[in-house]
Write a structure and sequence with these properties.
The chain has one helix and 32 strands. The protein is mainly beta.
Length: 358
């Protein structure tokens, strides 16, 4: 059966999103929302227990920890962040600030796993820089670091994507540290094993318990040649569409994604994606009206789906989307609030930088 299981009466959790400089938090159980901060910018975030809200490197009602963004652990109230000098710390209300690695260690990126594992990329470059030193991937468990991949040959800047259910670090190998090469996709590794080739977007990699779903396919057009690979097998099975942004349940039994017509468009901004359920049963969940596109589906534990119904806009050469955060439950869409704006890069909207779900 498609849609929300009948046994799940209301979805649990929260969603935080930016709306014209206001940070809004909506309760998914009640549908109520409130503005928790104004005149703010930066990616929003929610702690693992949903009690703490952040925007950029600032915790609402608490300290400002960094100039960038906070990465929250999936449980509890612990965040990881990087200082401008390059050191990585964790912070929680009870333990305060604790050093993970110093600035000289060379952290490039990091991500949490479900059991408190923290994966870190490493690369040290002294100016003038030829081949960087210590290009590696490390995993931190229980306060101890161990190397999971590397030293990498040539120039391969490791970009951490996530941590798999078995504790392996998922990371992209960024050849030459080149934005142009990365735009057309990079190989995704689990520790030392190559598992897929994807565009470098956080919503193209979804860890669900011991399972892994990715939007596989190169070239920078998000509307061209993408398919959903779940545990190594193609579950989209429809090359007439380009499939992106997979999201799956913790046990891997349910999987949703967004799909457009498979094409290399003459002009970006007419994606007109719908949300589909691919597992366990297959079917279309949404059909947006002309001029709109449904983006960034996030599957909730009760089977409901959060998405952003988006309309494309252009200012000069800049393309972006303005959207409404919607909750799909029992086949019905409920608007939770307006969100915007999200940059559009070759058909991919940066909603993960605007909307955070817990």
């Amino acid at each position: 059966m498609l849609g929300t299981p009948a046994a799940a009466a209301t979805p649990a959790g929260k969603v935080a999103f930016l709306d014209r400089g206001r940070l809004v938090v909506a309760d998914l159980a009640t549908g109520s929302s409130r503005v928790v901060a104004s005149h703010v910018s930066g990616p929003p975030g929610l702690s693992g227990d949903g009690k703490l809200v952040s925007v950029g490197g600032r915790i609402v009602g608490g300290p400002t920890l960094a100039k960038g963004r906070l990465v929250w652990a999936p449980t509890g109230e612990t965040a990881a962040y990087q200082t401008r000098a390059g050191a990585v710390f964790t912070w929680s209300p009870t333990a305060g600030r604790r050093l993970v690695v110093g600035a000289s260690w060379g952290a490039t990126s990091f991500a949490w796993g479900q059991t408190g594992t923290l994966a870190l990329g490493r690369s040290i470059c002294h100016v003038p820089c030829g081949v960087p030193l210590h290009q590696e991937v490390w995993v931190r468990r229980g306060g101890s670091l161990r190397r999971a991949a590397g030293p990498l040959r040539g120039v391969q800047l490791p970009r951490i994507a996530a941590v798999a259910g078995d504790g392996r670090a998922l990371w992209w190998s960024d050849e030459q540290g080149s934005a142009s090469i990365a735009a057309d996709g990079l190989p995704l590794y689990a520790n030392r094993t190559r598992v897929a080739d994807t565009l470098v977007y956080s919503d193209y990699v979804s860890v669900c318990g011991s399972h892994l779903a990715v939007a596989q396919g190169g070239d920078r057009y998000a509307m061209h040649g993408k398919r959903i690979v779940f545990d190594g097998r193609d579950v989209s099975r429809d090359p007439s569409r380009s499939w992106v942004s997979p999201s799956c349940s913790p046990d891997g039994t349910t999987l949703v994604a967004a799909a457009s017509v498979n094409t290399t468009p003459p002009r970006i901004g007419n994606e007109h994606r719908s949300i589909w359920q691919l597992l366990p049963a297959r079917g279309r969940l949404t059909s947006p009206p002309a001029g709109f596109t449904d983006e960034f589906p996030r599957l909730l534990r009760d089977g409901s789906v959060l998405l952003v119904r988006t309309r494309s806009h252009a200012t000069g050469l800049q393309l972006y989307g303005l959207g409404t955060v919607e909750l799909l439950r029992g086949g019905k869409l409920t608007a939770l609030g307006s969100a915007g704006r999200a940059s559009n890069y070759y058909g991919h909207y940066d909603w993960p930088d605007v909307v955070a779900v817990r």
